[in-house]
Amino acid sequence: MISIIRKPILTEKGMSRNGDREYHFYVEPSANKIQIKQAVKEMFDVEVEDVRTANVKGKRSVKHTKKGLMRGKTALRKKAFVKLKEGHEIDLVSGTTND
User: Fold this and answer.
1) What's the CATH code of the domain at 26?
2) Tally of CA atoms within 13 A in the half-sphere of 34 that contains its CB
3) For residue 22, with 0-12 CB atoms within 10 Å meaning exposed, 13-18 middle and 19 or more buried, which class applies?
4) Phi and psi torsions of 12, nearest 5°
5) pLDDT at position 99, please?
6) Which residues does 73 contact at the CB level (< 8 Å), separation at least 6?
């Protein structure tokens, strides 16, 4: 169940949404909203209010090298936007330092 969540998305825009109790994660492309909700609940011990998902298509890239054209593609990714219930929060990055 925990392998559904790959890693949190730590961007400036995403971190500004933490005050709204919304957290963003990269998840398995085959996972559905119910599985994502259960995984967040088990991993962080919080109550989930809402889950939204978005599929991100892979991009194609072409590089010109000495050996010719190198073609590639980035992988398909799925994002989950998880909103927690009032009074619950996840400490993804602690803003305190140990001096």
Assistant:
1) 3.30.70.330
2) 0
3) middle
4) -65, -45
5) 45
6) 58, 59, 60, 61
Indicate whether this model's pTM tops 0.85: no
pLDDT(95) > 80: no
Distance CA 31, CA 35 (A): 6
3-state secondary structure of 85: coil
The answer to whether 53 and 66 have CB atoms below 8 angstroms apart is no
Residue 6 within any structural domain of the chain: yes
- The two three-digit tokens of residue 81, written as one number: 């936007």
Closest residue by Cα to residue 84 from 62, 51, 42: 51
What is the percentage of the chain residues whose pLDDT exceeds 90?
A: 66
pLDDT score at 90: 85
